[in-house]
Amino acid sequence: MAQSQEPTLIAIMGPTGSGKTTFINLISKSNLEVGNGLESCTDEVGFATECEIFGKKVQLIDTPGFDDTEKTQADILQEIAGYLKASYEDGRLLTGIVYMHRISDRRMGGIARESFRLFRKTCGDRTMKNVVIATNMWGDVTQQQGEDRERELATKGLFFKDALDHGARMLRHLNTIESAHAIIGELMGNTPEVLKMQHELVDEHKGVADTEAGRTLQSELERQEQRHKKEIEALQNEIKRLLQELQTNSQTHQQEMNDLRYAHDRLNEKVARIEAAKETLQRPPPPPPRRSSWLDKLEQERRQKEAELQEEIKGLKDHLDEDSVAREQQMRELEAELEKLKDDLKSLKQQKDKLEAKLKKELLQHYVVYAKM
Ligand SMILES: Nc1nc2c(ncn2[C@@H]2O[C@H](COP(=O)(O)OP(=O)(O)OP(=O)(O)O)[C@@H](O)[C@H]2O)c(=O)[nH]1
Ligand SMILES: [Mg+2]
Q1: Basic and acidic residues bias: where (predicted)?
Q2: Is ligand 1 within 6 A of the CB of residue 36?
Q3: What angle do CA 129, 63, 222 make, to 5 degrees?
């Protein structure tokens, strides 16, 4: 039966995505938002519906992971500090804390270790006996892998050994209500304790930055800042070196460019000469070369001589023409005379033929007379 007393307060902490909210919903039948992507889901302290475990009222408190994808570690520390301070001032102390860790993580890298360190400083050594480190996601590894990792986590100072040495326990959460109850059951009989940070904030009136967790975070931030500054310096040197290289290269490139430009100009000249030669080929042949002046003079003299000769020839021709006219006239007169002679000859011939015919006739008459005699 549930008691009317104040519920036992148990906070669930751990890296983002480690299954804190899922664990809380499983036990308390709450409906707190569970992440389904790569981004962090719970970004502030949340309270689950009160539930009853082993006859006692329990309230589970959900928290954001120190490695939240949106908020900084300082934001998360402030958020958790705010809750711890208020709850201590209200006289409500945590009976236990579950720190979730995925056994499926191949490594517990820098951020995971840093988160656990902040968790340790928040709790302090004295309250480690009220802490259960719950490994989950056993379904994602083989039994052997899970056991090997569990051993490594428990025995290496870098991981959970120190916390275990101070009284923390390590349990497996098999994602069943039974294993979840078993984990909470481990914490139920504990005496509620004031966490280190609560003591610092409330009893010692320190600011968050002055708490051990705050200082740890601050020195970590300074370390990160130094590292980033070194990285920036290295980057600046690299940029400087690249710029110098670029400058040297650009000088080399300038020379190469000049050479190319020179070669380009020479080629252009050659092309222009070829174009000109082609154009020349297209042109009509050039006029004959000019002769020298003495040739011109000779030519002139020759022309003059030719003109004189032409004149002389013309004169002769004219003269010849006059002679021929006279001769033609003479010829025509001779021809007319010849024609007249021909006519005379003809008429003479006719007269002769007549006379001969007359003579013949008279002879014949004489012959007949003679014969009769
Ligand atoms: N396989 C497996 N998956 C789990 C288990 N617990 C949680 N998950 C899954 O892990 C993812 C993250 O779970 P959440 O419960 O949101 O984790 P969270 O620690 O609350 O994350 P934040 O709120 O971001 O800090 C979800 O997809 C869960 O379904 C588990 O025990 N086994
Ligand atoms: Mg969550």
Answers
A1: 293-308
A2: yes
A3: 85
CATH class of segment(s) 8-220: alpha beta
| pLDDT digit string, tens, across residues 128-183 | 999 999 999 999 999 999 999 999 999 999 999 999 999 999 999 999 999 999 99
Nearest to 76 by CA among 100, 112, 46, 44: 44
**Cα separation, 59 vs 50, whole angstroms:** 5
Q: Which residue is closest in CA terms to ligand 1's atom 3?
A: 137
* pLDDT value at residue 3: 45
Strand, helix or coil for residue 30 = coil
Residue in the structure block whose two tokens are 């902490």? 13
Residue closest to 184 by CA, chosen among 43, 8, 303, 25: 8
CA-CA-CA-CA torsion sign (194, 200, 203, 205) = negative
Closest-lying ligand 1 atom to the alpha carbon of residue 12: 19
> Phi, psi at residue 50, to the nearest 5°?
-65, 145
Ligand 1 in reach of 22 Cβ (< 6 A):
yes
Q: What's the CA gap between 243 and 240, in Å, rounded?
A: 5
Please report which residue ranges of 92-211 form alpha helices under DSSP H: 110-123, 143-155, 161-165, 177-188, 196-198
pTM: 0.68
Report the pLDDT averaged over residues 227-244. Answer: 90
pLDDT of residue 139: 97
Q: At what angle do helices 212-282 and 73-89 cross, to 10 degrees?
A: 160
CA distances from 329 to 185, 254, 283, 337 (A): 172, 105, 63, 12
Query: Is beta strand 51-53 parallel, antiparallel or unpaired with respect to 131-136?
Result: unpaired
91: left (phi over 0), alpha (psi -120 to 50) or beta: left
94 touches 190 (CB < 8 A): no
Closest ligand 1 atom to residue 63 Cα is 25
Give the model's confidence band at 285: pLDDT under 50 very low, under 70 low, under 90 confident, else very high.
low
Of the two residues 213 and 366, the one the predictor is more confident about is 213
Distance of CA 271 to the CA centre of its chain: 36
